[in-house]
Prior knowledge:
single chain; mainly alpha; Four Helix Bundle (Hemerythrin (Met), subunit A); 52% helix
Amino acid sequence: xxxxxxxxxxxxxxxxxxxxxxxxxxxxxxxxxxxxxxxxxxxxxxxxxxxxxxxxxxxxxxxxxxxxxxxxxxxxxxxxxxxxxxxxxxxxxxxxxxxxxxxxxxxxxxxxxxxxxxxxxxxxxxxxxxxxxxxxxxxxxxxxxxxxxxxxxxx
Length: 155
């Protein structure tokens, strides 16, 4: 288990997001900082099993290749397409970006506690299939670094 990535997600990610000015334009993509934060909360809900995708969009024969990428240190490319997201980003759910940050921290804390209580749990990801805790931490970490880079933060 990579405790560094776990600690980053639960203790450093949201504070780093809070340091980004809310009017910062992304280096790529169309989401604002608040839209990205809310999108990330959605991803954490999938990782914790709170939200269950309708299906896995990756064909079964491609899942081993997808999981190998997930478990590698290769980053997500800029503008990585997400066929489950609309072309135009969804409107924000929260009145303020602070509320979006608070929600994200709550979801990350829930994710961590939920797996602590259920260490052998597998949750279904729509792109990578069934993932255990370590794989979900790796995916969320890779996803977090991707979006931090999108807004000019290098980790």
